[in-house]
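Lecture notes, unit on protein representations.

Consider one protein chain, 103 amino acids long.
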Amino acid sequence: MVLMLRRGWRHKGHRLPEAVAPAYQYVAVVVHQGVAYVSGQIPRAGGQVLVTGKTGAEVNLVQAQRGAEACVLQALAQLKAELGDLGRVSRIGTRVYSATTGD
């Protein structure tokens, strides 16, 4: 599983960023009964927020896709920081929220 993930993000030219400390008072990852829950992530890379606004208005589809990729990489970085290694990950499920114009 992890090897497939690494091949996928490297194929697209991505690398796993360093996990960013939470900006407010919350825990980035909670592990309960063998399941890790990662808090919501914002599209950040290199310390900068990549996109803000609604897809279909201020944000185009390509920008939204890049933002989603950044969020996934941030979530994986948080997992790695908490678990020490992504080798313990056997399955990943996601829930994505995105602001759109509805069009």
